[in-house]
Amino acid sequence: MAREASGGARDFARRPVRLQRRSEPSGKRLAVSCHERSMLRGPAAVWAALGPLLWACGLALRGGMLYPRESPSRERKELNGLWSFRADFSENRRQGFEQQWYRTPLRESGPTLDMPVPSSFNDVGQDRQLRSFVGWVWYEREATLPQRWTQDLGTRVVLRIGSAHYYAIVWVNGVHVAEHEGGHLPFEADISKLVQSGPLASCRITIAINNTLTPHTLPPGTILYQTDTSKYPKGYFVQNINFDFFNYAGLHRPVLLYTTPTTYIDDITISTSVNQDTGLVDYQIFVEGGEHFQLEVRLLDEEGKVVAQGTGGRGQLQVPNAHLWWPYLMHEHPAYLYSLEVRLTAQTAAGSVSDFYTLPVGIRTVAVTEHQFLINGKPFYFHGVNKHEDADIRGKGFDWPLLVKDFNLLRWLGANAFRTSHYPYAEEVMQLCDRYGIVVIDESPGVGIVLVESYSNVSLQHHLEVMEELVRRDKNHPAVVMWSVANEPASFLKPAGYYFKTLIAHTKALDPSRPVTFVTNSNYEADLGAPYVDVICVNSYYSWYHDYGHMEVIQLQLATQFENWYRTYQKPIIQSEYGADTIAGFHQDPPLMFSEEYQKGLLEQYHLVLDQKRKEYVVGELIWNFADFMTNQSPQRVMGNKKGIFTRQRQPKGAAFLLRERYWKLANETRYPWSAVKSQCLENSPFTL
Ligand code: BDP
């Protein structure tokens, strides 16, 4: 007999110390708070048009999460490379806490492995047990600090962890400094006092990470104990999940130290709009660590010329004849980025100090009507992909060559957009999207919400906090045009209505300038969350998970589904997933499932309907998936999900060429001002006119 875990799972995930909010409200904050109720959705077009006004009373986000950039007042030191590592294989997984492994160097409490950071710990070793390990793992590394950092008391030293999946506790020199729940967003700890209190020029960073998922984590999961001793050894359990990707874990993104002065620019929020030819940049600057300061801001164009300037913590910069940030392929000068230079001058007991931060700014507007998605007032059609962050032995570890390769493939394909399925991606990914003009639907890790327990208040509270963290991190990226709060939740369950109403209203209160959605696979009549979204994003797998092999039913089923959704809601629709598993190199004619021909045939059937409906209200199509990716083992998965149009090694299947032809044609049709697109990747592209 099996029972759902309660004690055990919670044991593994239990927080030994209370979760600390990153920073408490401060009297000095400049943002104006406004009651959430006033942010509840009116007609989409109205709130989108009112974006800049509403922004002024957006729900105040507490604590900045500016990307750590170098500047004349800020230094950074990456801690990537080899860390010491140990998985706690003890029965209750808590030996590390019982023996306080953080108190002394990890090698003193037992054997350690070398573990690369960033990477997942799962696939770099030869140990099957480590690959599927559930519980606490321990990472440790010594960092040598520049003398100034440890001796200049006017310097603030911050430890930043780009992502630790799933739950993390951090110590520096054995002292607890931070704790964080959630595997896809950064968190920080001010460690100045610790590193400036003694003669040490180095510090020991210990991070314990737990990958256990519970019904209240995002994504959710459960631990299943197998208690039939005739079949399983004592204490046997497995982690169950309701999402279709491998639960890679570890330090997935860069870990670094950076400095600021002790009075510093903590956060910047910008919001842009356009009035005739004038670009408007509303800014708010949040300062911490001091009361007496001046702020100066300058907006520079790409040539470095100052085009507008201002002073103070909030204001509006006006840019006559502004260059707008356009998606790539939509305009001949896409992705124009200004630089917002912020200079803080503060008077401290030790004299005057300065802090500098430069933020890339794209001026653009986003709005939604009953049947269109508008960027800069022009209809935008999403022709792109869904992605995952994993590849080969590094699992979900951040990797520059992979990132550049993926963006080269996106541009080869003519993809103008992707969704960060099914969790927030690395900040460096978002930065490249800004620079290249690739539009992003930014998705939270709300995937696999199918249990009633996952709709509880505990879960909702955490989901609201995750949206705060996500908006805080990504709010200034022009590439981000919509938030997605979840993927394929059981939105037909009774509590889903209140859950999504609250979650979407909260996200809009955090950021009134962007539409909000979640991605559904529920029936249009049963979906209790759909009334609250601005754009209907719907996944379907006709002739794959139903009517196997019968591609002839696709057109009828897809057209009917679109019509039903539109008749019910009169909102624009995105085909947010569709696809077929395909083993690269399998060929079969007439096409059979899993062959390259079947994948192409299925896509073509979808395209016939998309081509009709995009003349009406369908505003986008995102293939599932850009590349093959790893999943849990199951008889339905052949070493992972094979719905990629590229293999996991990023080589094209036949469908990649089909989509490439389609996307470049779509680009030619939807370009503004009207003129032919030139392929950025291949001089002799058949689509270069
Ligand atoms: C969709 C999910 C996605 C899966 C895909 C599939 O959103 O995460 O990988 O199905 O089954 O339902 O390939």
UniProtKB/TrEMBL annotation:
Domain of life: Eukaryota
Keyword Membrane: no
Segments forming domain Glycoside hydrolase family 2 immunoglobulin-like beta-sandwich: 263-364
EC number: 3.2.1.31
Entry-linked Pfam families: Glyco_hydro_2, Glyco_hydro_2_C, Glyco_hydro_2_N
Residue span, Glycoside hydrolase family 2 catalytic domain: 366-667
Catalytic activity from the UniProt record: a beta-D-glucuronoside + H2O = D-glucuronate + an alcohol
Activity regulation as described: Inhibited by L-aspartic acid.
Domain Glycosyl hydrolases family 2 sugar binding: 77-261
Keyword tags: Glycosidase, Hydrolase, Lysosome
InterPro entries reported for this sequence: Beta-gal/glucu_dom_sf, Galactose-bd-like_sf, GH, Glyco_hydro_2, Glyco_hydro_2_AS, Glyco_hydro_2_cat, Glyco_hydro_2_CS, Glyco_hydro_2_N
Region (Disordered): 1-26
Subcellular location: Lysosome
Coiled coil: none
Membership in a protein family: Belongs to the glycosyl hydrolase 2 family.
Quaternary structure note: Homotetramer.
Function: Plays an important role in the degradation of dermatan and keratan sulfates.
Name of the protein: Beta-glucuronidase
Gene (name only): GUSB
